[in-house]
């Protein structure tokens, strides 16, 4: 008799104080063969306890919770179980929230009103150490741009930065630009240094605030 080699479905918990949203998302997860809904909590404190109990693979969590926010809850969960992949859902994040998210250890930052398929794909493909952010979350109202030199980035660095903002990884960016992955990583490193950023997400948030991305206007 052939041995079943199918991988176990990813175990997912949903953290949201809107019960209807959480129940509908749980039902959607259970309709997927490779995903399994294993619990729901409605507060940051309950989220931490639930994750300690059921040890999920992935957490989908609203940013706005009854007793705190999703990034605080994510920090507490990852302190206990750093292997858990956490995706935070939000509406219009401020540049400060985007910057904090970049260093929080979460794997994804998505719009709560986005498509179900995008969310399911994020649950499937989120990886520790990686960071997915939907481009729509960068299209938020910004404060007046900080003083900046118009020629801070080279033309090629601006191209790489634009592709980073679109959510592409280094391999995809290198292919699109017709350069090697090592060369593309060098551009990323230069961009981070010039913008004073520690991660690509933080660099994109800073560039958006300073109007360095296409579609924005330099002061």
UniProtKB/TrEMBL annotation:
Transmembrane segments: none annotated. It comes from the Bacteria. One of its GO terms (molecular function) is DNA binding. Residues 11-127 form the Response regulatory domain. The keyword Phosphoprotein applies. Gene3D superfamilies: 3.40.50.2300, Winged helix-like DNA-binding domain superfamily/Winged helix DNA-binding domain. The keyword Transport does not apply. InterPro entries: CheY-like_superfamily (IPR011006), NreC/VraR/RcsB-like_REC (IPR058245), Sig_transdc_resp-reg_C-effctor (IPR016032), Sig_transdc_resp-reg_receiver (IPR001789), Tscrpt_reg_LuxR_C (IPR000792), WalR-like (IPR039420), WH-like_DNA-bd_sf (IPR036388). CDD domains: LuxR_C_like (cd06170), REC_NarL-like (cd17535). It holds the Pfam family Response_reg. The modification 4-aspartylphosphate is found at residue 62. Residues 146-211 form the HTH luxR-type domain. This is Response regulator transcription factor. It comes from Arthrobacter mobilis.
